[in-house]
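Email to the structure team, subject: 3-oxoacyl-[acyl-carrier-protein] reductase model.

Hi all, the expression group asked for a predicted structure before they design truncation constructs. Nothing fancy, just the tokens so they can compare against earlier work. One-line instruction: predict 3-oxoacyl-[acyl-carrier-protein] reductase, return tokens.
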Amino acid sequence: MDKRWSLQGTTALVTGGGSGIGYAIVEELAGFGAKIHVCDISETLLNKSLSEWEKKGFKVSGSVCDVTSRPERETLMQTVSSLFNGKLDIFVNNVGGGRPKPTTEYDADDFDFHIATNLEPAFHFCQLSHPLLKASGYGSIVFISSVAGVVSFEWFKVSGSVCDVTSRPERETLMQTVSSLFNGKLDIFVNNVGGVRPKPTTEYDAGDFDFHIATNMEPAFHFCQLSHPLLKASGYGSIVFISSVAGVVSLECGSIYSLTKEIWHVNGQKIRANAVAPSAIKTSLSQQYLDDVSFKEEFFGRTPLGRAGEPNEVASLVVFMCLPAASYITGQTICVDGGLTVNGFSYQPHA
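Reply from the structure team: attached below.
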């Protein structure tokens, strides 16, 4: 076989590999010859899957891991390093979750859930895996994401308030003041507050990560929620975010896209990072939506292929991104969505 189309002799870590898309990715990687370590939060699912893979002759080991726990992430990577002699060729970040509801209905707990489940583990795993990926001389990262990637003045009449935008209560007080000043309406909101601690990604610690979330991301998200009624009431409504060409994060899935583009590409190391963004895939997590008749009619009516995807249809792209044949592809996000994103789509569940 042409070596460009083989993973024989390579090593891989797949998070959330006990079922669904992760399970299919493991099968596909193993079929191309990779030796794999899998983690999953469910010991029952993990053991069942490991037994099935053993019967098929696949080289797969596994660990129970809650990826929202920093110590458990560190323990997992120590295990992987020990198993693969300090080297890792492929890392597939497949763990994530969502609480589907309109942005204006998100509370602080919802926000924290998405950061803790989707963004922080991906960021931290990249740091932890970096020495192993670098040591392999190959290095491919694939993020599994989603297709769902979320001041008024008249001449020089200006008023002002003192506000620490990293404080949730102060943000709320500010918007109450604005609502009172402008009679419950707001035409323009410019989010211009931000900060950075410039250093290589691999040197970021938990404090640095929290600083960027608290300064750049959470205030922007919360201000959007708070300003929404005023912007809507104005009948005009324009929001402008002042960001940076450094683009650390946008939000949730968008932050994964940004992480994909930024994570290693500034330092010239031979580690590729790409993201795969599925839409509706037939897994246990998506079944509640696929059982919703109105959702299916609306969703698949806007999907050119007119159906949900299969886990192995995502896995095949993931494996391709890891093959030597894809050696010049990096920093990309590719949708596996039956054409959904050609049309655009926003689903709002019925009350």
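Residues 151-247 form a domain with the Rossmann fold fold (CATH 3.40.50.720). Confidence is low (pLDDT under 50) at residues 149-156, 244-253, 347-351. Ping us if the truncation boundaries need rechecking.
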